[in-house]
Design brief:
The chain is α/β, with parallel strands linked by helices. 46% of the residues lie in helices and 18% in strands. The protein folds into two domains: 2-130 and 281-304, Response regulator (Rossmann fold, 3-Layer(aba) Sandwich), CATH 3.40.50; 132-279, 3-Layer(aba) Sandwich (Rossmann fold). The protein contains eleven helices and 13 strands. Helix 2 runs parallel beside helix 10 (282-297), helix 5 (132-146) crosses helix 6 and helix 7 packs across helix 8.
């Protein structure tokens, strides 16, 4: 897993370096658009393919930045992009409550949109992604399939400060406990919650660190040997859970429900060690972000819906459709 993340970071470094060689004040008149993520991850390597394809199709300059040091790194990337004079930025916001100032500064100087994780109180023009609360409830449905008679569940996620992590997690909890929908509800991460035959033991965060994600899974197995299901809500969480369970000799003893389309998660579904996963469409996040930024640059505001939300719905992936989904993913990313 660590090797995959390092490879992703290395690939991004090459892309950013290439963009740095592109004309910044002359040479051609093509607009330059930037796609900024919340961390390095294999999920974002898929999105990068969509960014690059849109750049080719629309004949524009594009860059992908994957800051590795959280809010500080993301702020530094945004400030650097402003200094370069890019014509538009799409960003997955890490901590919307505490990044409003820098986001509004960006929005005041160039076109700003969000993807994957929104900052609805900022001056961004549109959010591209899915309804994370709905997707979380879909993930909860998978848990109920895996544990039809109830059981003890631990949730793993990178951050609950991020809009996507918070809403996704809450959706899982509300679905399991049989609550009415309320995207604004927030249960404390350390709360033990029971209802509808399920006990949510808590939520463990890792701040985007796959090593810590694995340690969290190992700690859960030690502290809660009777855990029934482990739910990983960021792309690297399910592979970390798989590794921890494998080393503990507990594969197939503890149910795994995943999020996103890491290779290890998809292989686990085919092998029967992962019940299923809820997938986004990172390729389309990348492609659509550049497409929308370019349209706005060309003064076509018809691409912005009235609710400022371009929905790219989540999907269920189970054993019956995992291989066809994976084959299509490999074709889009050039790995097939």
């Amino acid at each position: 897993m660590k090797k995959r993340v390092m490879m992703a970071a290395a690939l991004v470094a090459l892309v950013v370096s290439w963009v740095g060689c592109a004309p910044s004040g002359g040479g051609d008149d093509k607009p330059r658009f930037a796609f900024v993520t919340n961390m390095p991850a294999s999920f974002w390597v898929i999105a990068q393919k969509g960014v690059e394809k849109a750049g080719e199709d629309l004949d524009v300059h594009v860059s992908v930045d994957m800051p590795a040091d959280g809010v500080t790194g993301q702020k530094r990337v945004l400030e650097d992009l402003l200094a370069r004079g890019v014509q538009g930025i799409a960003v997955s916001v890490i901590d919307p409550a505490n990044q409003t100032d820098i986001l509004n500064e960006v929005a005041g100087r160039t076109t700003l949109i969000t993807h994957d994780a929104d900052a609805p109180d900022s001056e961004r023009m549109v959010y591209i992604g899915m309804d994370n609360y709905t997707a979380g409830r879909m993930c909860g449905e998978l848990v109920k399939e895996a544990l039809p008679n109830g059981g003890k569940v631990m949730i793993f996620v990178g951050r609950v400060e991020q809009d996507n992590g918070r809403r996704r997690r809450q959706g899982v909890i509300d679905e399991l406990l049989g609550r009415d929908p309320d995207p604004m509800r927030f249960d404390p991460p350390d709360a033990s919650l029971t209802g509808n035959g399920y006990e949510v033991l808590g939520t463990l965060t890792d701040q985007g660190d796959p090593v810590r994600a694995k340690a969290n899974a190992e700690d859960t197995l030690s502290r809660h040997p009777d855990v029934s299901c482990m739910v990983g809500l960021f792309a690297y969480n399910p592979p970390a859970i798989l590794e921890a369970l494998s080393q503990a000799g507990k594969l197939n003893q503890v149910k795994i429900v995943a999020f996103d389309e890491a290779d290890e998660s998809l292989q686990g579904i085919l092998d029967g060690t992962v019940h299923g996963t809820i997938v986004q469409n990172p390729y389309m996040y990348g492609y659509k972000s550049i497409e929308v930024l370019n349209a706005i640059h060309n003064e076509d505001l018809s691409v912005i819906p009235d609710d400022q939300f371009i929905d790219i719905p989540a999907r269920f992936i189970r054993k019956d459709n995992a291989q066809s989904f994976w084959d299509d993913l490999k074709q889009k990313t050039g790995e097939g």
